[in-house]
Amino acid sequence: MSAKTLLHKQYRTLAELWPTDPLRPNLTLQTLLQQRIARQFVQTVEGDEAIPTQNHPGPATTGSSGAEDGRPVVKFDESRAMREINALGSLLEDRYRKRYPVSDRILKPRGNPHYYENLMKELEQAPGRSWWETKLNAWKGYIRMK
């Protein structure tokens, strides 16, 4: 199995494992990653030297030579793909959250110790609200601020 095929498989797996955003179900990172995979792992086309790499800009070719959406085809850069896969994997595993835990001093500020708890509760309830409930809550917040 070639390195490009292996990287393509890893990239696809990460895209499939990425969680969907309940607040924006129609705008997901999965879709963006799948489009990027399609653009980045296209088959080699004629005149491969004329296609810019991800690190060095150059003349771009259009959708007629490989990309279906008309965006420029980008020459495959193995080292960049490996860095991107590593970054996505580390975010998916919460590697930085485990390495750099947030203290209670930050999560419970003195001025409003329940701020983040209330925010999380609000974010959990938001996707299930109707249009009317959303507008009513907005007005409640507006009146409270006055």
TrEMBL record:
Q: Name one GO biological process term.
A: mitochondrial respiratory chain complex III assembly
Q: Which InterPro entries match?
A: Cbp6
Q: Which domain of life is it from?
A: Eukaryota
> Which residue stretches belong to region Disordered?
48-75
A GO cellular-component term linked to this record: Cbp3p-Cbp6 complex
**GO MF annotation list:** ribosome binding
Bias kind Polar residues: ranges? 52-65
Q: Quote the protein name from its UniProt record.
A: Uncharacterized protein
Which organism encodes this protein? Morchella conica CCBAS932
